[in-house]
Amino acid sequence: MSKNQFVTGNYHGYYTMRQNNEKVRKLEETILVIVIICVAMSLLIFGHPLIANDTDSYIEAWNAFASGQLSAKRTPVYPLVIGLASAISGKAHMGFVIILIQNFAASIAVWIFYKIARRATNSQNVSFFSALFFACFSIYLLFRNWILTESLALSGLLFLIYCTINIYDGKSKWNILGLTFWLLFLTFLRPSFLYLPPVLAVAFIIMIFKKKRQRKQALCSLASVAFVTVCLLLYMATFKSIYGVFTTTNIGMVNDADMMLQTKDLNPNYSKDEKLKKYIKEMYEGKDVYYEMFNYIFAMPDYSDLEQTIHKSKTLQNQLSNIGYRLRTCPSESLREYPGRSEILNFINFAFFCGFLTIIIYGLALMVYIVKNRSLPWLPLLLLMLGASNIIVVIIGAQAEWQRLVYPSKAIYLIMIVQLLLGAWRLFSRPPKTADPQA
């Protein structure tokens, strides 16, 4: 009991607070039990490493980094996780150690999700059931056991958001170190996270004006974002010195080439590489040289010619046309049923459509709130910027598999959906205003 409550005799308020704290404690204990059960289920049902088409490239990347070279295909974080697992258990049991790491991180992420949802909805019950759904969702359990970046990307993004919210709320300064670590972790985990530094920079600039008493923390956080950005630029400069292009991996450039080949916008005459020029022409003639061509591209020691060919082939007209086409077709593509594919993969497609739709509805709702209240809600804006940026980067920058690439933001979309449903319920369950009898 606080001194003020003792002096004023506010015993009812004190015991109410104790009851609320007891309720929160029980909810959190329940979440902990559910997390333990879900981890056990995940390991029992999918208790062996699941290998995807991209898995070998991460192992090859670790071999490259271990020999002191930069991988052309992969950024360093996940290959380093593979190296750590290999050092702990040897190559024979490396995969099992990786899924243990991913399951451990994903379990903590459920707890963090609950904390974020509680902050976003201001409702203990709603945040609890949201976390329950998040913990038990089969897709999240399944991806914990793939030797891919998806699981750590989702967990890491939740940790980053949690640190960012704590900084905004003026909590421990250790959160700035957490922000720096997780931002560095994510930007070097997968290239599609390049949107994180600018989004967080905007969020902390807004914080400077909204939280004037916490400007120092906001400025320190901006310095952390700047530090990560400098690290990223130095890595890209090193990559350029080896492979001839200023980027983190060759994947984005290969995706560009793939997309331009689909629309026949990649002009072979701009290339000085006769073999590449020949492959492009044969592709346009309808010959089946797709895999042969991209095997050749991935084996290139220098990508400067391919970069120049792509750059010179791009025009404002064909780029706007391509972006518009993809923005129109990606949502409808995600609603298609694919014969022969598992129901889980078809559901992932549908979940992508839900995320796309959620961004639009959430953005409109946020605009209405801002106009009506003449106030800028910081956390909803942060969630919207993160969720929308991921979808935009993926649709524009990847030739396919948008559903998988946007997977790390599924937790954000779930919180958005919960906020929208809760807001609608509160709006329609509000009792109508009665006329003032004295009016």
List the SSEs and their pairings.
Blueprint: H1 3-8, H2 11-45, H3 55-66, H4 77-89, H5 94-121, H6 124-136, H7 138-143, H8 150-168, H9 174-187, H10 196-210, H11 215-243, H12 251-262, H13 274-284, H14 290-298, H15 304-313, H16 316-333, H17 343-373, H18 378-397, H19 402-405, H20 410-429
Helix pairs in contact: 2-5, 2-6, 3-4, 4-5, 5-6, 5-8, 5-20, 8-9, 9-11, 10-11, 10-18, 13-14, 16-17, 17-18, 17-20, 18-20
What does this molecule look like?
- This protein has 439 residues and is mainly α.
- It has helices at residues 3-8, 11-45, 55-66, 77-89, 94-121, 124-136, 138-143, 150-168, 174-187, 196-210, 215-243, 251-262, 274-284, 290-298, 304-313, 316-333, 343-373, 378-397, 402-405, 410-429.
- Helix 5 runs antiparallel to helix 6 and helix 10 (196-210) packs antiparallel against helix 11.
- The radius of gyration is 25 Å and the shape is globular.
- The two termini are 45 Å apart.
- Residues 1-18 have low confidence and may be disordered.
